[in-house]
Amino acid sequence: MTDPEPAVQSSPPPPPEAVGPLIRSLSVLRELASGGGRQAVGDLVRGTGLARSTVDRVLSTLSRLGFVRTEGRDAVLAPRLLELGNAYLAASELPDRLGPLADRLADELDESVSLAVPDGDGVRFVHQATRRRAMSLAFRIGDLLPAERGAPGVLFANGWDADDWARWRRRRTADPTDAGFPAVPPRRADDTSAAAVFEARVAAARTAGWSLDDQLIEPGLIAVAMPVRDAYGRTVCALSVVSHTSRLSAEELPAAVLPRLRETVSAMEYALSAPQDGPSVAAAATAAGAPTGSEASPGSVHASWMRASKQELGSEFVESMARGLITLTVFGAGRAELPLSAVAEATGLARATARRALITLEHLGYIATDGRLFRPTPKVLELGFAHLCGLTLPDIAQPHLAALVERVHDSASMAILSGDDIQYAARVPTVRIMSVNITLGTRLPAYPTSMGRVLLAGLPPAELSARLALADLQPLTRHTVTDPDRLLALVEQVRADGYALVDEELEEGLRSIAVPVHDRSGRVVAAVNVSTYAGRCTTDEAKAALLPALREAAGGIEADLHVAGRYARIPVL
User: Fold this and answer.
1) For residues 381 and 366, what is the distance between their CA atoms, to the nearest angstrom?
2) pLDDT surpassing 60 at residue 392
């Protein structure tokens, strides 16, 4: 570990079988992710070094896949891109098997808890159970840290060989301030003692069985981590408890958390050794893409979609790029490793085409193989996962509301239930001589509003009845329903119909229609509505004109929410 640091080496050239368009599309996604999820197209051209026409075709294809959307001159990462990272996380099984145990530990200790995996000479988070405090952990799933700056990296470096240490030294020489790790504050370029300190910490952790981070990431942030091993004794991840010096000192933290940390690690290692609930890897590989009854296989669906996309977009749709990206989505729970034949069948690609895609992804570090089976790597999470899993529900809803307004030419809003009120969380107004003027954060009583009735309809029947019995039902207009029994019947009808239409009950001349937004569990978490002037048309005409578009917008929000919420908690505000 004391050899002189070698010179920085450039990346090896791609193999002859590599798919060029796939390489270019991933460079655009990486550039977008490094820019915070949004960049002007011109900046993407400069950042990637690609021709403008090439970037345009890449963005057109990514947009068709739902991974990117364009807003004016900007390209923006879209929530559906999380499908790539979700596939890796599901294949690893770490968040599904170990996440609940990490959450429980965070609740018991009232401290933030993380699961991290090795990614080259860095550490990437795969699960976060964060305490909300003025000074608390701000890392996200997918964030990458240098191995030497934190507690988990010490544990992973314990298993490095000479090549791993050489790679680490090359990286430190090439990036002395950690500019390649935007999740952490920069370090001093003249910090020459960091390498020796890191090697000493690795040796100490090897003896102790745990590691300490004493403000290595930023002042005040401290952590203790332990390795979690599989049935073969291999370290597969690290469990960390993170605190702040305002709560505990670095000397006090180990004594305070190690007993429960050790118990949780033991429970995690038992969970990893337990039989899988899903099909075995071999069974999953055999079944991947197989048709069931009269249903088409996923592979045939992909092939049909590819043909339709190419026919519609022509040269603006690059099939080889789309095929390569879809290849990453075939992995998942029970499909951690797949042979080439299973990948080809699941994607509908010829074996030679699937092989070229896998070779390209392996060259870029997104796929690893033992020569027979292929598996996704944590590097997949660099493709915008950290940014996108930090979105809120209003962030997810906003583009869908904008598309809805463009379609129906009336204002659209999203609200959540807050006590007996609705609270506006997202809104896109339209420009009319007569329009509805409401700002974000506005609260209105739930009972005389369309969104309120949709949200009330999502409550358990007993809770709904109790709320209405205690509610202060005041007549806001001559049309406002204030009888509790009649209101209960109306809300129950909303539950059956799946929408609410309220005509002039909140304000004379105001008509609105709303539909629910459900999370992954089917729970109603928000409502979306369109408000209009009642004098423009009849209620039947309003329903016929607005309800299909409104349901389509809500469906789009739900689809994005379900993808984004698979492994991350999505705040409703």
Assistant:
1) 9
2) yes
Residue 189 has pLDDT above 90, yes or no: no
468 residue type, one letter:
L
Q: Is the CB of residue 127 less than 8 Å from the CB of residue 251?
A: no
Give residue-wise pLDDT tens across range 116-164: 999 999 999 999 998 776 555 678 999 999 999 999 999 999 999 999 9
End-to-end CA distance of the chain: 49
Q: Which amino acid is at 191?
A: D
Interacting residues of 424 by C-beta distance below 8 A, sequence separation 6+? 413, 414, 415, 438, 439, 440, 441, 442, 443
Contact in structure between 95 and 142 (CB atoms under 8 Å): no
pTM above 0.85, yes or no: yes
- Distance from C-alpha of 250 to C-alpha of 267, rounded to nearest angstrom: 26
Residue 491 has pLDDT above 90, yes or no: yes
Local structure of 19: helix, strand or coil: coil
Collapsed DSSP state (helix, strand, coil) of residue 412: strand
- Strand spans (E) along 161-286: 211-214, 221-229, 235-244
Contact (Cβ atoms closer than 8 angstroms) between residue 346 and residue 288: yes
CB atoms within 10 A of CB 120: 17
Specify the higher pLDDT residue, 469 or 21: 21
Nearby residues of 27 by Cβ (< 8 Å), 6 or more positions away: 48, 50
* DSSP H/E element including 522: none
Confidence of residue 431 (pLDDT cuts 50, 70, 90): low
The count of other CB atoms within 10 Å of the CB of residue 45 is 19
Tokens coding 173: 């020489």
Q: Of 70, 67, 61, 64, whose CA–CA distance to 79 is shortest?
A: 67
CA distances to 95, 189, 322, 352 from 337, in Å: 17, 41, 21, 19
Q: How many helices (H) and strands (E) does the chain have?
A: 20, 18
Q: Are strands 221-229 and 211-214 parallel, antiparallel or unpaired?
A: antiparallel
Indicate whether 550 pLDDT > 80: yes
**Mean local confidence (pLDDT), 541-566:** 96
Residue 185: its H or E element: none
Measure the CA–CA gap between 543 and 514, rounded to whole angstroms: 10
Q: pLDDT averaged over the chain?
A: 89
161 token code pair: 């060989």
Q: What is the distance between the alpha carbons of residues 500 and 450, in angstroms, rounded to a whole number? A: 5
Closest CA to 339 of 325, 321, 354, 319: 354
Q: Which residue has the tokens 């070229």?
A: 356
Phi, psi of 106 (to 5 degrees): -60, -40
Six-digit token pair at 273? 């050794």
Say whether pLDDT at 75 is over 60: yes
Instruction: Using the predicted structure, report yes or no on whether residue 39 has a pLDDT greater than 80.
Output: yes
Alpha-carbon gap, residue 411 to 430, rounded angstroms: 5
Q: Convert the pLDDT of each residue in 519-536 to its tens digit.
A: 999 999 999 999 998 888
Burial (CB count within 10 angstroms: exposed 0-12, middle 13-18, buried 19+), residue 504? middle
